[in-house]
Specification:
Elements lengths: L6 H11 L3 E10 L5 E9 L5 E8 L13 H21 L12 E6 L3 E7 L15 H17 L21 H6 L3 H15 L5 E3 L8 E3 L6 E3 L6 E3 L2 H11 L2 H26 L5 H26 L8 H13 L1
Antiparallel strand pairs: 1-2, 2-3, 3-5, 4-5, 6-9, 7-8
């Protein structure tokens, strides 16, 4: 069943698009834990045939598929939508075709809800969503990440998360407390510090899983969406998380070198084009060493949040043990 929009939000969409009327066509996705919907809207009398709106409304009853329903969890989600609004309003214009995202058209809010009006990426040439990917398709996504990280290398995170990613240690004390791996638990602060004290920092997407990439018809070009957890950080957080979202343990072992070499090749070119004052090789040297640390940081979160998750496997355990041995 389609949710309803109040007249304030309908007027905002019409004004942003120049349409004479609109119709809510379909719910693309319900937001995590019941915080609203992403909806495709068809337009009449506009140059655009459709737009996508992100309609965020605060739930009366908190619900979470894994039981995390504390006030801290709620406040984290609320702030994430504030961050995403700020991202589209103040930062998104810096993304070009090399790190394609939906055009930001408008936003509107009241006491209980926020509305983002965005370009419909399906109509813009990115209609394909993939649940499984081959190496070429993964490399297309890694190229997007490299371009994104190069674009925002050295940027401050005004209005965004001071530290990007949804699993950042400071925002996840409950999951740390639940973690039964005592060695990893004891090392959590040191792992976090290794990443936060890296010399080279950029903006990270913060939730760069496969589901947040949209592909062109031939799957050679990608665009990304969902910027609730964008903020400052080491680019390896995005890279490790993305690879882990695509591959099982055997494929991680087999493809690690190929995928990292591809990413760093793209990053080198993008940095040389965008930041002549930054030594690309110095960034690459530092971030290569931080890849297993970034992987272990997410592994720490996952083992506390959902101990039976499919991503907890021998490859992750091996990287984490290697990191623990070096700390």
């Amino acid at each position: 069943m389609l949710p309803s929009l109040d007249t304030q939000f309908e007027s905002a969409i019409l004004e942003a698009t120049g349409a004479s009327s609109l119709e809510l066509q379909s719910v693309i996705q319900e937001l995590w834990s019941g915080y609203g919907h992403i909806i495709r809207v068809t337009l009449v009398g506009s140059e655009r045939s459709s737009v996508v709106i992100k309609h965020v409304s605060m739930p009366v009853e908190k619900k979470h598929p894994r039981g995390w329903t504390s006030d801290l969890s709620h406040q984290r989600k609320v702030f994430s939508y504030q961050v995403e609004t700020e991202w589209y309003r103040q930062w998104s214009c810096r993304c070009d075709q090399a790190c394609r995202i939906p055009d930001f058209l408008s936003y509107c809010h009241n006491d209980d809800a926020v509305l983002l009006v965005l370009e419909d990426l399906d109509g813009a040439g990115y209609p394909i969503r993939l649940n499984q990917v081959n190496s070429k398709q993964m490399i297309s996504c890694l190229k997007w990440l490299a371009e994104f990280h190069a674009t925002f290398m050295g940027a401050e995170s005004k209005g965004l998360w001071d530290t990007g990613t949804y699993w950042h240690l400071a925002t996840r004390p409950e999951e740390l407390e639940a973690l039964e791996d005592e060695a990893l638990k004891s090392a959590a602060i040191a792992i976090d510090q290794k990443l936060s004290q890296a010399r080279y920092q950029t903006l990270v997407h913060g939730d760069a899983k496969l589901a947040n990439f949209c592909f062109s018809n031939d799957t050679t070009q990608v665009a990304a969406l969902d910027f609730q957890y964008v903020g400052r950080g080491c680019g390896m957080k995005d890279v490790a998380y993305f690879i882990g979202s695509c591959l099982d343990e055997k494929a991680c072992e087999r493809k690690e070198t190929e995928l990292l070499d591809s990413y760093f090749g793209f990053l080198k070119v993008a940095l040389e084009q965008r930041h002549t004052d930054i030594a690309a090789e110095a960034v690459i040297d530092e971030w290569r060493e931080l890849f297993p640390i970034a992987w272990s940081d997410f592994h720490r979160f996952l083992k506390g949040w959902c101990p039976g998750h499919w991503k907890i496997h021998s490859y992750s355990e091996r990287l984490a043990r290697q990191v623990l041995d070096t700390l």
